[in-house]
Design brief:
This protein has helices at about 25-45, 70-85, 115-125, 135-150, 165-180, 195-210, 225-230, 230-235, 255-260; strands spanning about 5, 10, 15-20, 55-60, 90-95, 130, 155-160, 185-190, 215-220, 240. The strands form two sheets. The chain has an eight-stranded parallel beta sheet. By secondary structure, it is α/β, with parallel strands linked by helices.
């Protein structure tokens, strides 16, 4: 296994870390969701206190939902609030583009995303930052370099909501992610059938041997749910669950996911 250590948590050691996305358009929405997620995390911590590997390790702020993201002061305020709320978890900043399934925006903040990344990195309030590999090599390398200089790990990502690419294409994307500075390599795709799901799970197992970085390959949608719950079997380093609203098709509730992961120990 190729482990990456982030704070007290390891990725790529054979057990998938659980991540819960947090979404909200306004400050009040985000703070209310963070309260609900925190309460559920503490409940699950107590329920599975003898199984530390099942702890919700990562909170992903899906900033593409936030209406005031372009306001640097408000951005910092939200980051600081989330850092305080989830002081014992890792905080992952994600701006998902519309092309890869992100929330539709009208303020054109996407054209100034480099500056948003800079502000997030400068804040020192996040542990991980998501960078889409298809943004263009220069922008990807720049964001990854700035993050690494600040001691922040990079989740390099790619999403296809239409299909599951051929194995050779997925392997090529993973190699690009590695070269461009990804620390954790994430690909999520849409299967057309159960064969696509099995193919992704088999490729996940293979990539554990061939990649030098922790990898997570996700099949989305109803057919792909098994790829989210069999991470220990396939060696996926990360899996996503919801508390309330899901951020991608096929996510299941954190309580249900963790119960299923517990049965695999």
């Amino acid at each position: 296994m190729n482990e990456v250590k982030v704070g007290e948590y390891s990725f790529g050691n054979g057990s998938p870390r659980v991540c819960i996305p947090l979404m909200g358009r306004t400050r009040d929405d985000i703070l209310e969701q963070s309260k609900l997620i925190m309460e559920e995390c503490h409940r699950l911590d107590e329920l599975y206190k003898d199984y530390p590997e099942l702890k919700v390790s990562v909170i992903e702020w899906r900033a593409d939902y936030y209406d005031d993201l372009a306001d640097s002061d408000k951005l910092w305020e939200i980051l600081n609030s989330l850092r305080l709320a989830f002081s014992d978890r890792l905080l992952l900043f994600t701006f998902r583009s519309e092309e890869e399934g992100g929330e539709l925006r009208h303020d054109r903040v996407g054209t100034h995303l480099d500056r948003v990344y800079e502000k997030v990195i400068e804040s020192g309030l996040v542990d991980l930052i998501d960078v889409e590999v298809m943004r263009g090599n220069y922008k990807v390398v720049r964001a990854a370099t700035l993050a690494h200089e600040a001691g922040i790990k990079v989740v390099m990502s790619y999403h296809d909501f239409q299909k599951t690419p051929h194995d050779t294409d997925i392997v090529e994307i993973l190699r690009d992610m590695d070269i461009l500075g990804g620390d954790i390599l994430k690909i999520a795709v849409m299967p057309k059938n159960e064969f696509d799901v099995r193919r992704m799970m088999e490729l996940q197992t293979r990539m554990n041997e061939e990649c030098f970085k922790p990898v997570v390959l996700i099949s989305m949608g109803e057919n792909g749910v098994i790829s989210r719950i069999k991470g220990k079997e396939t060696g996926a380093c990360l899996t996503f669950a919801s508390v309330g609203e899901e951020s991608a098709p096929g996510q299941i509730e954190a309580a249900d996911l963790i119960a299923l992961l517990k049965n695999q120990i």
